[in-house]
């Protein structure tokens, strides 16, 4: 278990809502992205992750995490996503559905290049500050605090710009996901 995770969990068990927000901020996007490996809807993926976080908040006093919270979250998201797919397809052919999703991820280079160009165009079309913040966080892998220092703005302003960029790029999320998993 990461030291940061264990501190967050200790605070969470005491009912600290800031710790919950920290956990949410740390894992929300990676979990949503992971869920998309198994389902074909970003909206469904978000719902699954949000439901998991609601369950964690509601059960925080009774939950015991002896292992890595990250592993638990990713396994729960995978299981919950597959359950939703089973419900959607009435338990018929779920293995075929999941296998088809995996096969569909195998795309040719020309298709990837086209999607990469489209993604870059959409990133470049973002407002200047949102684009800078997005690139710093996603491409340069900076933390919010580091980006705030680099641009001379507050952490909340960084989060605002990053959120705006993600909202505008949400239409291109399938493109982003392709590049995360290739």
From TrEMBL:
Keyword field: Sigma factor, Transcription, Transcription regulation
Keyword Transcription applies: yes
Domain RNA polymerase sigma factor 70 region 4 type per the UniProt entry, residue ranges: 117-169
InterPro entries xrefs: RNA_pol_sigma-70-like, RNA_pol_sigma-70_dom, RNA_pol_sigma70_bacteroid, RNA_pol_sigma70_r2, RNA_pol_sigma70_r4_t2, RNA_pol_sigma_r2, RNA_pol_sigma_r3/r4-like, WH-like_DNA-bd_sf
Residue ranges annotated for the RNA polymerase sigma-70 region domain, each copy included: 24-88
Similarity section: Belongs to the sigma-70 factor family. ECF subfamily.
Name of the molecule in the record: RNA polymerase sigma-70 factor
Organism: Thalassobellus suaedae
């Amino acid at each position: 278990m990461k030291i940061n995770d264990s501190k967050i969990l200790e605070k969470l068990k005491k009912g600290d809502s800031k710790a919950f927000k920290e956990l949410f901020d740390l894992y929300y996007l990676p979990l949503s992205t992971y869920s998309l490996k198994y389902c074909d809807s970003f909206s469904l993926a978000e719902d699954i992750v949000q439901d998991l976080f609601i369950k964690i908040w509601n059960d925080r006093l009774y939950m015991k995490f002896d292992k890595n919270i990250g592993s638990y979250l990713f396994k729960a998201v995978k299981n919950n996503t597959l359950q939703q797919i089973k419900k959607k397809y009435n338990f018929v052919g779920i293995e075929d559905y999941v296998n088809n999703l995996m096969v569909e991820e195998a795309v040719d280079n020309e298709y990837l290049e086209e999607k990469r160009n489209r993604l870059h165009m959409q990133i470049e079309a973002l407002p200047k500050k949102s684009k800078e913040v997005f690139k710093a966080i996603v491409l340069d892998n900076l933390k919010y605090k580091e980006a705030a220092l680099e641009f001379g703005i507050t952490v909340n302003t960084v989060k605002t710009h990053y959120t705006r960029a993600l909202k505008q790029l949400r239409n291109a999320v399938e493109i982003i996901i392709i590049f995360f998993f290739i």
